[in-house]
Amino acid sequence: MVSLSSSRMFQLLQSHIQSAGQQSHKTRLVSKDGHCNIEFSNIEHSNHCAYLVDFWTTFVEIRWRFVLFLFVASFMGSWFIFGLLWYWIAKSNGDLTGQNRTAGHLYCVDNVNNLTTAFLYSLETQTTIGYGGRSLTGHCAGAVAVLIIQSLIGMFISCFMCGVIMAKISLPKKRAKTVTFSDTAVVCLKKGSLCLLIRVANLRKTLLIGSQIYGKLLRTTTTADGEIVILDQVDIDFTVDAGKDNLFFVCPLTLYHVINRSSPFYELSADSLPQQDFELVVFLDGTAESTSSSCQVRTSYIPQEIQWGYSFLPIISRTKTGKYSVDFSNFSKSVQVTTPHCVHCFETDADHRNHNSQNQEKLNNQQKLGIDNLGFQVIAIQDALVTKM
């Protein structure tokens, strides 16, 4: 009996660990650092040619390892190909070592005697090194033409590869690395409403001009016709105390979404939130002040990363010297606060408070105006009974 119960407990514990691991490794469409987890399949071969037509974007978007490989391969390949051409010119003219030369033999290129020296001359020509040991004599028109073509192609390769490297270094998404979101979102009361709060910070002192913040709720829904829609997108409006657009993004901001009847989170509660299956993707668009390039920062939150009944710790303070200080150690930290269990509970309590306040207001008005005494009898006084003096 003891061994049976122990094995049963071990199985339950193992299944719980597996389910927890599966829940923590939930598949996301957008990772925490903003990368999209999506792949394309069964693409027609004609569409693959579009990547070659738009070769500039293809070169800029490929990984650094491939860029460095193409950088080395383009120069080494051009040097070797033109080295073969110089070797062929020297061989056709009889300049190589071991070939029969006449007494008045005219060389096309001096000191190009084998394939190695032909490769070195190709490298020296394209890189404009010019050590002086090998040089074009000018007696062969074909050699002059090859020299011109190699010089032009070498300049084109240099300009193109330098442009690709500079474009990759200055990509706007690199600027997005200095904008960070809080690890978790919280649900608490803010300004008399139940809100979903997210914190965002700009790690650079240079501003993001014209910043706009919005969100998308991704979930699987079923239409009235029974059709299952995967990754159904619902707009989520976020705002801050300073407004919604054109934010003064100089210090960390707290974004909040009011959970009301028009919100897709209206039916959620503290108990049902962890069992939900959705993904909240938050976007921040802006223009870098230093480079004038547009960039977008994004992150996502799953239900397990939303804390109900918590509020972010304050992180902005003022030093003795009068400067504002931001403590990033508390950027994603939160503290438990008193929060309604659900939106319906909050609205019920709010209606009850409003009803009590209205009754209290009526009572106060009645006390000010007085109360009618129904037992009081009104007697009319005739003018004849009045004694004149």
Describe this structure in words.
The protein has 389 residues and is α+β, with helices and mostly antiparallel strands. 37% of the residues lie in helices and 21% in strands. The protein has eight helices and 13 strands. It has helices at 2-24, 45-53, 55-61, 64-93, 115-126, 141-169, 172-176, 343-369, and strands spanning 179-181, 185-190, 193-202, 208-222, 228-236, 253-258, 278-288, 294-301, 306-308, 310-312, 316-318, 324-326, 334-336. The strands form four sheets. Strands 1, 2, 3, 6 and 9 form a five-stranded mixed sheet that branches. The N and C termini lie far apart (116 Å). Residues 1-7, 9-24 and 384-389 have low confidence and may be disordered.
Can you tag this structure with a few keywords?
389 residues, 5-stranded mixed sheet, 4-stranded antiparallel sheet, 37% helix, disordered N terminus
Number of distinct helices: 8
What share of residues is helical? 25-40%
Mean pLDDT: 80
The beta-strand count equals 13
Report the structural category: alpha+beta
Rg to the nearest angstrom? 39 Å
Low-confidence stretches: 1-7, 9-24, 384-389
From N to C, what is the helix and strand string?
Answer: HHHHHHHEEEEEEEEEEEEEH
Measured distance between first and last alpha carbons: 116 Å
Q: Report the portion of residues in β strands.
A: 15-25%
The major pleated sheet works out as: 5 strands, mixed
- General form: elongated
